[in-house]
């Protein structure tokens, strides 16, 4: 939404958790007391607030009295937050001193609650003036400001209760006004969507039910409208012991009487109450002006987080013969399909039918299920295929075929057959893979996006869905710990709607923290708590339906991938699946098939020209782990062996192939991390120390030195398990990371310990040690440790002399000596140029870049910037 405040202006967001922004940047208030003071001033915006009231809000009624100077110092800090650019001694333009108190002075654009109330008044006036489209836009702008309970954290304070109640009532009235405006604009399907949140939160507001019934009636769903009346009557009797009011009773009577004055504007024509009267085969009666039949499952909850998809599909489905919603188990394909069909009912005068194919297993049972859903008379079923074709002839109808994955071929044959029947039939199918029929439009349905690290958690559709379902269980949205736990749950289940729904079911039995722990351990174990269909009773069973028909090799790969806890490449998949007898081409085919079956999510390359990566949703990985339980240790060993092989293939420092090695590690970094976790934390071993000692260059050159330092410190705890070379490499790697971060004083003991391990081990002159020492020399010089740098450079020189035949070791030794000498200004331009030529001749880009950097520094020291640029 476009901001209503000028660039750089102050904005106070009080319709939810209290936040202050300037130019879109959050401003810290510096503690709860200042936030309480600001909340009180906002409640009385523009009015005098006494010193006593402020003190009580900040310190409580029972706290000892405070001196005026104490309060003044806090007010000064609050002014500093609200007006950081105010000049010293200049009066505050926002928080003014009043006689015996203070007053918050701002314009309407500054405070969300003030602007919210103003927009609400404007929307009412626009609707009363017969401008429903303008009223709709204004109401939506107002509701977009609402982020939760006003003054969250202080809403229960005596001084805030009345203001919170007033704003909440304005919000509730706005919801009703928005639905009324949408109905007046001729958009009953959007009005139904807008009414969902209000009905879920305030089910006793009769006006919402009245608008819902009217919207349903204008969509040609009079039968649903009458069911809504029965539902609200039951709610009112159960909760209040009252019958519905006059408005609801009169609307029910008018719907039953088919009152033509209930018709709305635009193309929507009200339909009479549905009376099932099948047309004779071939009559085409349903394609004319008769009653619209809508046979869809009853909606038990609002659709949350799919508004854009719903709008897009509402445009696409009527123009296509076949639209297939494809996605993994539990992603909400059925729920979305039903809502699309409900929204489109008015555009299919031939009727809308829902066909559940969960129990179908062959062509005969598919056709039988379709016949039953259409309620064809027995005489029509002697030749069921012909009877269905005759029934659909000349009908502008919509069929929803749900759960097609286990009967793909029979369903594809039927849809292909129906495509030749005149009349404009549209089919909306749900499946875990496409039907692959000519003209099919495939719409992927993925999980709801979980919250991101840098975004507003409440803007996440996954969080919104979970909060909506938790509200139905009685969860207190004012609980400050609620959002944190909800974010953990939504993230742990990758935003899979079924898992979110089942997690919310558990809120009656467990705390949200307990549920977060449960789903983090195994999201596939979630199960339905109460009544309901056995279909998708547990997440694991839902996924098992996808896996049951997999060929043996695909099922084996599905289980094997449970050892890769994150994005991975085909190479990693092949490593855990086939081990040393790999066949990446064959594994790539299997990966593609699992993507086709919605058991893998394709992520694409991490960089242009990189390798494609894939991942299992957390729920699917949970199923794979359960299925591979007996084989789990072997799969972990295969993964660890593959990671060790990848690290063992490390190119020499500075060579052109080093970048490709860094990219390969980046692409499969989750597997590398999982192996380090297994070998350094879960089951510490010499192999873990070996890995940590050989990944130093990767952590450094890919700007992950903090992580590299953490793993090196872990490895040092277990260095007694490893050989001297690996232990020494870990120590030197840690020293390098410490120096790179400016902690060279901490590096010295690790360098000394490494040299003690190397002396007498026979590895002091090895190439891998010389490479680490070269990196360490550079970081020591940069950190300002010339003596230590010279000592390390001397070790590289000794290694080069001991080997005697490796020109690159000589290059490293000369480069380190020049680096160490550069601290004292000993490096000459001629020597640096010679080193640079040697590095290029040997193909060592690292030393060439290092020497070029030294040349720049030398030129700048000589006040010769032109040579530095060269």
TrEMBL record:
Record SUPFAM superfamilies: C-terminal effector domain of the bipartite response regulators, P-loop containing nucleoside triphosphate hydrolases, TPR-like
Keyword NADP among UniProt keywords: no
A GO biological process of this protein is: phosphorelay signal transduction system
Q: Which PROSITE patterns match?
A: OMPR_PHOB
Extract the SMART domains matched here. BTAD (SM01043), Trans_reg_C (SM00862)
DNA-binding stretch(es), residue numbering of this chain: 1-106
The question of whether DNA-binding is a record keyword is answered with yes
Per UniProt, the keywords (alphabetical) are: DNA-binding
Where in the sequence is the signal peptide annotated?
A: none
Domain named OmpR/PhoB-type is located at: 1-106
**Pfam families according to UniProt:** AAA_22, BTAD, Trans_reg_C
In terms of InterPro entries, this protein maps to: AAA_22, BTAD, OmpR/PhoB-type_DNA-bd, P-loop_NTPase, Sig_transdc_resp-reg_C-effctor, TPR-like_helical_dom_sf, WH-like_DNA-bd_sf
Q: Name one GO molecular function term.
A: DNA binding
* Entry's family note: Belongs to the AfsR/DnrI/RedD regulatory family.
Which PANTHER family did the record assign? HTH-TYPE TRANSCRIPTIONAL REGULATOR RV0890C-RELATED, REGULATOR-RELATED
In Swiss-Prot or TrEMBL terms, this protein is called Putative ATPase/DNA-binding SARP family transcriptional activator
């Amino acid at each position: 939404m476009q901001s209503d405040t000028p660039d750089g202006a102050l904005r106070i967001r009080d319709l939810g958790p209290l936040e202050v922004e300037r130019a879109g940047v959050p401003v810290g208030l510096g503690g709860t007391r200042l936030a309480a003071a600001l909340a009180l001033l906002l409640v009385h915006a523009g009015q005098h607030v006494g010193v006593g009231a402020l003190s009580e809000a900040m310190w409580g009624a029972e706290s000892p009295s405070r001196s005026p100077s104490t309060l003044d110092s806090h007010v000064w800090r609050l002014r500093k937050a609200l007006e950081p650019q105010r000049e010293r001694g200049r009066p505050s333009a926002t928080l003014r001193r009043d006689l015996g108190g203070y007053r918050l002075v701002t314009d309407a654009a500054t405070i969300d609650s003030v602007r919210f109330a103003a927009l609400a008044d404007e929307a009412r006036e626009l609707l009363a003036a017969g401008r429903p489209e303008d009223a709709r836009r204004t109401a939506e702008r107002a509701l977009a400001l609402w982020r939760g309970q006003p003054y969250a954290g202080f809403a229960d304070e005596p001084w805030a209760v009345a203001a919170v109640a007033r704003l909440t009532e304005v919000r509730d009235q706005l919801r009703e006004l928005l639905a009324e405006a949408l109905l007046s604009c001729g958009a009953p399907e959007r009005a139904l969507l807008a009414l969902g949140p209000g009905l879920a939160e305030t089910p006793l507001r009769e006006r919402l039910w009245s608008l819902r019934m009217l919207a349903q009636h204008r969509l040609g769903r009079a039968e649903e409208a009458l069911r809504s009346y029965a539902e609200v009557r039951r709610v009112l009797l159960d909760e209040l012991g009252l019958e519905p009011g006059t408005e609801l009773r009169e609307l029910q009577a008018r719907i039953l009487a088919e009152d033509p004055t209930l018709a709305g504007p635009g193309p929507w024509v009200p339909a009479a109450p549905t009376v099932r009267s099948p047309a004779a085969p071939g009559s085409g009666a349903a394609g004319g002006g008769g009653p619209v039949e809508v046979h869809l499952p009853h909606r038990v909850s609002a659709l949350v987080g799919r508004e854009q998809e719903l709008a897009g599909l509402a445009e696409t489905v009527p123009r296509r013969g076949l639209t297939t919603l494809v996605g993994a188990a539990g992603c909400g394909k059925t729920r979305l399909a039903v809502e699309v069909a409900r929204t489109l009912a008015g555009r299919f005068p031939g009727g809308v039918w829902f066909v559940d194919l969960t129990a179908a297993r062959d062509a005969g049972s598919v056709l039988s299920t379709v016949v039953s859903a259409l309620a064809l008379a027995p005489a029509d079923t002697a030749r069921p295929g012909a009877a269905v074709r005759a029934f659909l002839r000349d009908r502008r109808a919509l069929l929803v075929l749900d759960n097609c994955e286990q009967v793909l071929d029979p369903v594809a044959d039927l849809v292909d057959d129906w495509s030749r029947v005149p009349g404009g039939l549209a089919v909306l199918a749900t499946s875990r893979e496409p039907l692959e029929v000519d003209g099919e439009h495939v719409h992927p349905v993925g999980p709801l996006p979980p919250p991101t690290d840098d975004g507003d958690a409440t803007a996440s559709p996954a969080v919104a869905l979970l909060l909506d379902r938790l509200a139905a269980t009685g969860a207190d949205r004012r609980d400050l710990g609620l959002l944190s736990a909800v974010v953990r749950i939504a993230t742990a289940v990758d935003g899979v709607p079924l898992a979110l729904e089942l997690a919310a079911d558990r809120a009656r039995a467990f705390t949200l923290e307990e549920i977060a722990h449960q789903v983090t351990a195994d999201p596939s174990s979630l199960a339905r708590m109460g009544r309901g269909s056995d279909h998708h009773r547990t997440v694991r069973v839902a996924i098992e339906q996808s896996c049951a028909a997999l060929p043996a090799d695909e099922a084996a790969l599905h289980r094997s991938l449970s050892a890769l806890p994150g994005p991975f490449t085909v190479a990693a998949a092949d490593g855990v699946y086939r081990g040393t007898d790999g066949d990446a081409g064959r594994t790539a085919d299997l990966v593609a098939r699992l993507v086709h079956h919605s058991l893998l999510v394709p992520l694409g390359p991490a960089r242009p020209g990189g390798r494609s990566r894939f991942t299992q949703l957390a729920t699917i990985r949970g199923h794979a782990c359960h299925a591979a339980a007996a084989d789990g240790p072997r799969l972990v060993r295969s993964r660890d062996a593959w990671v060790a092989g990848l690290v063992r293939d490390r190119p020499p420092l500075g060579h052109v192939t080093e970048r490709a090695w860094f990219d390969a590690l980046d692409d499969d970094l989750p597997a590398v991390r999982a192996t380090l976790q297994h070998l350094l934390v879960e089951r510490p071993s010499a192999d873990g120390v070996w890995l940590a000692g050989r990944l130093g260059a990767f952590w450094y050159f890919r700007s992950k030195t903090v992580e590299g330092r953490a793993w090196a410190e872990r490895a040092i705890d277990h260095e007694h398990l490893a050989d001297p070379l690996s232990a020494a490499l870990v120590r030197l790697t840690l020293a390098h990371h410490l120096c790179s971060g400016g902690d060279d004083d901490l590096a010295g003991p690790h360098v000394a310990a490494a040299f003690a391990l190397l002396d007498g081990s026979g590895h002091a002159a090895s190439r891998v040690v010389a490479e680490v020492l070269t990196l360490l020399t550079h970081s020591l010089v940069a950190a300002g440790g010339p003596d230590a740098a010279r000592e390390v450079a001397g070790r590289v020189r000794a290694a080069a002399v001991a080997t005697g035949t490796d020109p690159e070791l000589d290059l490293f030794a000369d480069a380190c000596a020049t680096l160490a000498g550069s601290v004292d200004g000993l490096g000459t331009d001629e020597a640096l140029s010679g080193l640079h030529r040697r590095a290029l001749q040997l193909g060592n880009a690292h030393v060439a870049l290092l020497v070029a950097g030294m040349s720049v520094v030398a030129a700048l020291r000589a006040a010769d910037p032109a040579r530095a640029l060269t």
